[in-house]
Amino acid sequence: MSNRVTQSDVASQAGVSRATVSNVITGRAGGSVQITEETRRRVLAAVDALGYQPHAAARSLRSGRTDTIALIVPDGSNPHWWAIVRGVEAVTREHGCQLVLSITGQEAERERQSLRALAEQRIDGLILILTYPGRLVTELETLRLHAGAIVTFGHELPGKDVVTQDYGPGTRELMDHLIQLGHTRIGFIHGVARPGLAADRLFAYRRALRAAGLPYEKQLIVQCGPTPDDGACAAMRLLDLRPQPTAILGINDLMAMGALQAAHERGLSVPGDLSVAGFDDIDIAEHLAPPLTTLRAHGEEIGCQAATLLFQRLADPERPQQRVAIPTALVIRGSTGARPVPQ
C-alpha cells in the first residue's frame, strides 16, 4: 500500500474540499471557487505539515510541460563534451528542469536509436550534437516537424536555433604561432570518427602553410581514430618521417596528448625537440607536463548558450530563428617553443 500523501489528505487536514486544495497548489482561483487568504494559508500549512509533493505526471498533464529537456552528445570519453554537458545542466537546473543525457559513442546507429527514442518521449526541448546528421535525415525531419524546441551544435536543422563555432580563425592563429617560432614542418593528426569532421581546422592548416610560403606535404597529415592511443600511433608515424616534423598539431587535446606520449616514448623533450599543440583546452590541458598549448573552445559556454536558446524558444515559440557564434581563443603554454637547431 502506498504511503504517498494525496490532495484528499491535505483537504481533510485543512478542512476544505479537494478542489480548493488543487486550486491553491496550482495557483488558480476565480470562477465558482473563491479562495480567501485565510483558506489559502490553511491549505499551505497542511501541505507543509503532511509533506505533500505534487505528482509530476499530473502536473505535466495540466500544464502541457514536463520540465524535462534532453541532450545528445557524441562521446563520453572526451572531456570537451562533458564541459558542454556541465553548461547545459547548469542552465537547466536554474530553470528547475531535469536533464536527460544520451551518449552515442560517435556511432551512427546509436544516434539513430537515441533520436527515435526521444521522439517517442514527452520532453520539452532537445539539444542535438551529432556525428552523423547526414545519415539521419528521416529521423531529424520527424523531430523538426513534430518536436518543440530544438537547438543544434555542429550542424544545422532548417528553422531551428543553432550554436556555431568556427575553428578556422583560431587555427590560423595557432599555425602562425608555430611558424613564428621557426617551425616549417608541422605534422597534423586528424583523429576523427568519420571523414569530413573538423574540416575547418584542416583547411586553415593548409591556408596558413600557403600564406607562409611553406610547402603542403600530404605525408605530414595522418588520419586516425579519435582515441588518445590512436593519436599516439599517428604521432609515431609522423616521427618516423625523415626529416621529422618539429611540431605536431592534434585535431583535439586528446590527439595532442597522444603526441606527448609518443614523444616521451621516443626520448624526445617537449618543447626542446618537438612542439605539440591541440584544440579545445580540456580541463587537464593546463596540468600536463608540459602544460599544453591549445585553442580554447569554451565548452561550458557552448552548453550554456545552447540551453539558454532552448528555454528562450520555450518561452517564445514564435521568435525568429536564432544563431549564436562562440569564438575560440589561443592559449599558449609550455608545450610549444622555438624550432630546435639542427645538429
Features:
3 domains; Rossmann fold; 12 strands; six-stranded mixed β-sheet; six-stranded parallel β-sheet; 434 Repressor (Amino-terminal Domain); alpha/beta; 343 residues
Structural class: alpha/beta
| Mean pLDDT figure | 87
User: How many runs of DSSP E, i.e. beta strands?
Assistant: 12
Gyration radius, rounded:
27 Å
Gross CATH architecture of the largest domain: 3-Layer(aba) Sandwich
The CATH superfamily of the largest domain turns out to be Response regulator
Strand order of the largest sheet: 2-1-3-4-5-11
Name the shape in a single word: elongated
CATH class of the largest domain: Alpha Beta
Q: Provide the CATH topology of the largest domain.
A: Rossmann fold
In total, the number of domains comes to 3
The ordered string of helix (H) and strand (E) elements is: HHHHEHEHEHEEHEHEHEHEEHEE
Fraction of helical residues: 40-55%
- Separation of the first and last Cα atoms: 83 Å
Q: Main β-sheet: number of strands, strand sense, barrel status?
A: 6 strands, parallel
Structural commentary:
- This protein is α/β, with parallel strands linked by helices and about 350 residues long.
- It folds into three domains: about 5-55, lambda repressor-like DNA-binding domains (434 Repressor (Amino-terminal Domain)), CATH 1.10.260; about 65-165 and about 300-325, Rossmann fold; about 170-295, Response regulator (Rossmann fold, 3-Layer(aba) Sandwich).
- Helix content is about 40%, strand content about 15%.
- It contains twelve helices and twelve strands.
- The strands form two sheets. It has a six-stranded parallel beta sheet, sandwiched between helices. Strands 7-6-8-9-10-12 form a six-stranded mixed beta sheet, sandwiched between helices.
- Helix 1 packs across helix 2, helix 6 (about 110-120) packs parallel to helix 7 (about 135-145) and helix 8 (about 170-180) packs across helix 9 (about 200-210).
- The radius of gyration is 27 Å and the shape is elongated.
- Mean pLDDT is about 85; it is low at about 30 and about 55-65.
